[in-house]
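pasting for ref
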Amino acid sequence: MKKLKYILLLLPFIISCNKEVKPKVTFIELGSVKCIPCQKMQKVIAQVNEKYPEKVKTVFYDVWTKEGEPYADKYQINLIPTQVFLDENGKEYFRHEGYFPFEELKKVLHQKF
């Protein structure tokens, strides 16, 4: 009987753990590993991943590679690095060109949560 009570108590937790958490924001970084300001953005991306692991999905495209080049066209970028922010419905709500310090970037993220 005690085992059954224990299982019933844990059931809501187990179910909630299996649910996929949908991020509030998708942060897309379009740059290159060979670009100095883009390299600096990698540290910012790491900070975002550390501080907002469930609220923000981060994506990096190296637009100087064959695999990443189509994303430069898709997002119509003019220079790198470029950051594109999508809401939970996939609609772009903010765009920035150049290095984007973490403290400034946080303000953009907080518009959606």
